[in-house]
Protein 1
Amino acid sequence: MDGNEFLEYAETRELRKITGPPCDWLKTYNLKSWGFRQYGKTENAYDSFKIGDVFVFHSMKQEYLPVDPGIKTGIIGAGILSNKRIIENEPSDNAFTPEGYRPIKIYFSDIWFFGNTDRIENESIADKKQKGMNYILRDIYNLTGNIISFHEMRENNCTISTQGAVSKISPEKSTRLLKLIASRLH
């Protein structure tokens, strides 16, 4: 699916937002998946997810690395849900996430990041960590480039919630947000 087909498809769907730190988005770039911690709200959200749902990716402040003021927060991409499952005995990522930390998994058939992805090696976060923190930070800067900032969302009356791991975006905000996303896909 190309960017135009995605936009046409997304206009017919409800949008959801996923929030996480930039290191986790590097894992999504590599694996085309996302993991949630297991607790009531995420379990309820997971139960409501359907194949074909559209998610926008909100990158928040650093969680595993020192805070870097040059890394902005906002929407960095989008994806279409292709599968979901709960993984018993989820293995560690051998970098930042311990065993069993995020067993609720969703997978994406199609995924778009707005940054300079041609400058990112598609390798595991463990491999990136072995190359050093500066290597990871470089990839984070590339991944979060061309971000839809909160300033831009405020100007277009489509600010998303920063709270919670996952939430729905109202249809009115979704329409305006898709216009901002469209500007990143062309």
Protein 2
Amino acid sequence: MKRLLFLIAPAIMLYACSNSTQSPATDGTAADQTAQINENQMVIETDMENVASMPTYWINHSAIVKMEAVQAKSGQHSSKLDAEKLYSLTFRETFSNINAKLPKRVVVNGWYYFAEPNEKAGMVMDINENNDAYIWKAYNFASVDPTINQWNEFTAYFTIDKPIKPEHQIKLFANGDGKVIYLDDFKITFEY
């Protein structure tokens, strides 16, 4: 009987530990999540919270501010652009560090808030080789909804229409053209 108990107890503990139903993001502190949805998609997300713990592929952390005058879309922080901060929190990584496959399309979803009219603000995809632009595409936010003083959702589709290499670097960021704009809840999907 003691031998049976000795074998059953570790099995129960192993089963209990491996079947946790609690999501790692249930406490609201996850700043970044990466998920391989299937072999054809990789998703990377950030809600702009917990800047200090973001993975190294997120740069330009100084654009993240605690929201006071405007409510963030989620949480308490967003990326603020103005005359001094021209670029948002930026995703920057070489393709070889993202996945063994090379993407055919990159989809960026998120939210923007115009504090003033802005016809030139948008999301940019910059694929470069040794810092020389190879593919550069922009998506204009005002084409979605130019309304000010409200959060507007956007989805930017960037088709990669030239051959790319694993050592190419991709940067995804917003440009506010020197005007006040807030951005929140970036979701980047690499489609293979």
Protein 3
Amino acid sequence: MPKHQNLILNPTMVHQDSLLTIQNTEGSFQNNNYIIKNENGSVIRKGNISNSFFGFQLRVVGFKTGFYQFIMGDQQENFQVV
């Protein structure tokens, strides 16, 4: 049975040098490490957050226009930089 997806990215279409908000629908994040990959599968950014957060924001700086994948633990969501 697939695990329930509880990551929400907003907006899913973000402008360069804007903020991407990541939220968890079930409270604090189970995993505090994240990875962002581009459409070729290359890791663009890695980081971690405090376990106490229910959401956080990332500034999309230095990202080329295209599609990206935000991965945290076994959960992933896609977003687009325009």
